[in-house]
Amino acid sequence: FIFSRVYFQKNFSEDNVPSGKDVISTVVTYLPDSGLTLKTAAEESIRGLVKAGLLRYPGDITEYKEINIKYAFPIPVPGLREEMIRLKKELAKFSVITRGRYGNWEYAGMEHAVRDGLEVKGEADKLK
Q1: Given this model, what pLDDT does residue 62 score?
Q2: pTM of the entire structure?
Q3: DSSP code per residue over 2-61
């Protein structure tokens, strides 16, 4: 499959989708110089959804939208941990607490966002 993740919006809440419908999102990761286009990624995703049994027929789709997020996933590099420690110390001088995928420069999902939210109060109290 071309996609690395598939999720159904109504699994988060039935209120996220029109009655009698579903919204399926796929995530396709690729390198900028791969030659992959958004249109090809969408077409391959639809074929993959049918092959996986998550969609009966491509014609069942009433609309779709491709979105390219250039920096969707942080890419670790040598020295990143040390640089993050230095940056966080500097930002703390201004009472700035970094959180999330880009604030901690880590691969993070919803469960990490909840964890971060629970931890941030303790960090904020330390800055006072």
Answers
A1: 84
A2: 0.64
A3: --SEEEEGGGT-GGGS-TT---EEEE----GGG---HHHHHHHHHHHHHHTTS-S-GGG-
